[in-house]
Design brief:
By secondary structure, the chain is mainly alpha-helical. It has one domain. It has 3 helices and no strands. The longest helix is centred in the C-terminal third of the chain and has 35 residues. The two termini are about 40 Å apart.
């Protein structure tokens, strides 16, 4: 959400409605695509009975975990490029 605020501050008032709509459209598209992929995993294995359905659910959760992991790694990468290592400790001593 902070990125959207930064973008809204850069564009003029006349373009803010368009930028907000494009952001929401991309967000909705991502939700729809991920839902379709998860449903496809479940549907592929659903014909094998209850055990197959459980395999489909596990595959869908695996996909969700994978996409979340990729997103978190990208966020960490961007943070490190912008601010340096999150593990470095600044003690305030410049000896």
């Amino acid at each position: 959400m902070a990125n959207l605020s930064a973008i809204m501050g850069i564009v003029g008032k006349e373009s803010q409605g368009t930028i907000g709509a494009v952001q929401r459209m991309i967000q909705n598209l991502g939700i729809a695509v991920d839902t379709a992929v998860a449903a496809a995993f479940i549907w592929i294995y659903a014909g094998s009975g209850t055990a197959g359905l459980m395999v489909g659910f596990r595959a869908a959760w695996g996909y969700a975990t994978f996409t979340l992991s990729i997103s978190l790694l990208l966020i960490l990468f961007i943070f490190v490029r912008k601010h340096g290592s999150p593990l470095s400790i600044d003690t305030g001593d410049d000896d």
